[in-house]
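Table S2 (text version). Query chain:
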Amino acid sequence: MKADERSGAFVQWAMRYMLHRLLVVYELGRNRYDLSSFFLGHNRSFCQLMEYCASTFEFETKTI
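Corresponding structure-token output:
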């Protein structure tokens, strides 16, 4: 995802929520974040958890 203020806030939110499951790499040359799972073979559960995290982030930041 392209790095900007909003995506940076989401990445911080996701790291706090997903803890050890989330691997975040910032690509300086492309100015973007790469989010992936530490666990091989857990793509479905990772995607579901990432979707939940995104919807929770969206809800929480709209109510502030």
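Notes on Table S2: The chain has a mean pLDDT of 88. DSSP finds two helices and two strands in the chain.
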